[in-house]
Design goal:
Two copies of one chain form a homodimer.
Chain A: E1 6-10, H1 19-29, E2 35-40, H2 42-50, E3 58-62, H3 73-79, H4 84-93, E4 99-102, H5 106-117, E5 127-133, E6 138-142, H6 152-169, E7 177-180, H7 191-203, E8 209-211, E9 223-225, H8 228-248, H9 259-264, H10 267-277, E10 282-286, E11 291-295, H11 301-317, H12 319-324, H13 327-362
Parallel strand pairs in A: 1-2, 1-4, 2-3, 4-11, 6-9, 7-8, 7-9
Antiparallel strand pairs in A: 5-6, 5-10, 10-11
Helix pairs in contact in A: 1-11, 3-5, 4-5, 6-7, 6-13, 7-13
């Protein structure tokens, strides 16, 4: 695409939309050369814009509908075809934008992005990836909340999504990924976790092991895969801890240090600084074909701005496109899907066989 | 029961059993008037005891088998009838002990206790309850890991278990309980969470709402109910945070303060002290008929001692027996179970009806 990048922002998504979103867009516009396209109710957006100083890098695109936080994802997709979210993603789909950022209803974002942009071939669903500080560097948590119920195949595929993201975005060519469990013994954990491990062992594509949450910050693994309900709960619990720590420490300690001070801090304390200063930016929706980032519903203007800058970074790197062309990833996803289909068919066959046998017995042993 | 209390301890359960368990028992024996009954491999236990100074309040009971951490719960129950765990719980069942403490395989403890001691009438399964520090006082997390997969009925019943525990053990006559979710909207969350909310709304027995993990420490609710996999993961994540904070702070700050210093600390900092000083004691297995506590597998001798003292406290209070006679609890459990059975039957009836209709269509519309 010639000219500057265009970042489409769902201006109506988020708890304090559109005001905070517009403020965030203004903040971002002063920091980037990308154009920002605010999608939403034209009148309200122009009113918000009027209260801000003029910025030439912001455009507005009208969308008459708004997805509410309480809307079910698939329903929002079907019934609100002209929502700000849907129109923003449509711009991305048509190549008129390079990335989409939304702080809205995440189930609706996942459903709309999956439907309009499509997924990497072989993938069953996308997953949200969030980087958390660890003592080594960062640890990727996937799925951080795209879906609140996962089967074994979803967790197994998320392992490869995480590996590909770490390879292409964080420069870790050989990342180690763990599956979150509540013990390292093979008998522990719910069926989905055990199913994922079985699928991964049978396709034998990557050495994966169980990790427990208390080792998350040790740097033992580069990425941890879990169900979106669990991942989102972990993120929110950490948010609660950070909030509580802020109340415990006198203001300014150890929260408000500059990035230079932060870099100068020795490692043990630095982890705390990084955790406390961690901004709820935006999480990439891994597995869709184009750059989509989901920001926290309670994002501040500063966090919205960060999300826009991150989206620009991902779009410039072409991360989503590179993941879609990652031949290793495609191979692994296909292998997992094949194995899974084999399981399903075997299951059906067995059920049919036992069902048939049962019917025979009922009929008094007739063949 | 005349004479002192007897606390049966599964001496072979735990990562560093039996040594650490024996050390913990010794430590506890110096602090309580209760007798401690160590159950396990006689020879090994006598060898451990020989290295400790003589204590008259400790007895040994032989059990030839040991449940391993990797054993599946129901299998351990069926195949290892003479395990230290099973023998200890049998002593409790026969009235020869007043409480059982085990740091062993929690799935096996849950299965064995459920089978040998029985549950409160109407209850489908027990749940582990753990108290965490909040800014108000404490917040009860249930289930903290008894089961790694839960349906709506299990979560709904756990709400009443939590309420009854808070009433009888923490002196909160009117506790507020929340169900953990990743949003407060009714469309959010997995089926089990939505099912639990529906069951509770239909029986209309207690005002319950969704809570998110970032508000856990705010004191907004007295108890939070979640699936055991999620609860256990949250506990372990907090453990990881505490470990990381210990690395961040120079030794002794703010960890090593005496209880008096702790009490003298103003509230915001006190939360941190309470979190950091929180000992991984033992969690009561709520819903079984007699006092069973599960300690962390990695418990230190000090934590085993704490667990024994806590078990004695619960046994002395008669908490488990009082919960078993709590008429409100029994009523609510029965109402939930009735409602659930009604659902199941309606589901079956509908399936039968639609199945029958389908069969009719297949036969060309015959009645």
């Amino acid at each position: 695409m010639a000219g500057p990048m265009v970042i489409a922002v769902d201006a109506m998504g988020g708890d304090a939309a559109p005001d905070v979103i517009v403020q965030g867009a203004f903040r971002a516009a002063t920091l980037t050369s990308a154009r920002i396209l605010l999608v939403g109710d034209e009148k309200r957006l122009h009113r918000c814009l009027a209260s801000e100083p003029h910025s030439p890098a912001i455009d507005v695109l009208h969308a008459p509908e708004t997805v509410d936080m309480g809307d079910a994802g698939p329903l929002a997709l079907r019934r609100k075809k002209l929502s700000s979210l849907s129109v923003a993603i449509d711009q991305l789909h048509r190549g008129r934008a390079d990335a989409v950022v939304s702080a809205g209803n995440s189930a609706a974002i996942v459903a709309t992005a999956t439907h309009q942009l499509g997924l990497i071939p072989g993938l069953k669903r996308p997953a949200l990836g969030v980087l958390l500080p660890s003592f080594e560097s960062d640890v990727l948590l996937t799925d951080a909340g795209a879906h609140s119920e996962s089967g074994g195949i979803h967790l197994a595929q998320a392992v490869f999504l995480a590996a590909s993201f770490l390879k292409h975005s964080c420069g870790r060519p050989d990342p180690t990924i763990g599956i979150l469990n509540i013990g390292h013994e093979s008998t522990k954990g719910p069926r989905a976790v055990q199913g994922a491990m079985k699928l991964l062992t049978e396709t034998a594509a990557l050495p994966v092991r169980y990790v427990e949450a208390h080792t998350l910050f040790d740097g033992a693994v580069d990425g941890v895969v879990c169900d979106g309900f669990v991942g989102n709960t972990m993120l929110k619990l950490l948010e609660g801890v950070v909030g509580a720590l802020r109340r415990c420490f006198p203001p300014g300690v150890p929260d408000a240090c500059t990035p230079e001070e932060n870099a100068a801090t020795p490692e043990p304390q630095r982890w705390l600084h990084r955790l406390m200063r961690r901004e709820l930016g935006a999480a990439p929706l891994l597995g869709v074909r184009k750059t989509v980032l989901i920001a926290h519903g309670r994002s501040t203007a500063r966090e919205v701005a960060n999300a826009i800058l991150e989206a620009e970074k991902f779009a410039r790197e072409g991360l989503f496109e590179r993941m879609g062309q990652d031949s290793q990833l495609l191979e692994h996803l296909a292998a997992l899907r094949g194995r899974y289909t084999h399981w399903m068919l075997t299951g059906l066959k067995n059920r049919w066989r036992f069902g048939a046998k049962k019917a025979e017995t009922d009929k008094g042993g007739e063949p």
